[in-house]
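Predict the 3D structure for this chain.
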Amino acid sequence: MWSSEIQGCIYQNHVFRVRPYLDSTMNNHFFMQFINSRVTRDYYESCAKRTTNLASINKTQMRSTPIAFPPLEEQKAIVEKVNTLMGLCDGLEQEVQQSQEHSEMMMQSVLREVFEVK
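Done. Predicted structure below.
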């Protein structure tokens, strides 16, 4: 989702600019999460044209994307739940990274102790 983070930014012609027609009844964050969901990505994969390691869809296929359209309050609740779960995933990912770093340090310590000439 673009929020003008880079002034004067231009983008490649393979990038679509997508806006929901029903702005007042579609939560933009919900729309973004839905577009990035597995079910939508599977749809794009199924209709993509493939050339030299590049899969692309056209504007007609993008416009034909089937969209689940719950009430606005439910969209907001879904976004909030997804954000909460993603926060948990980020925390777990950080813990895994720290554990891997700790394991690496322990392995280096053990190897130094084993191979150190006394």
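The first strand starts at residue 49 and ends at 51.
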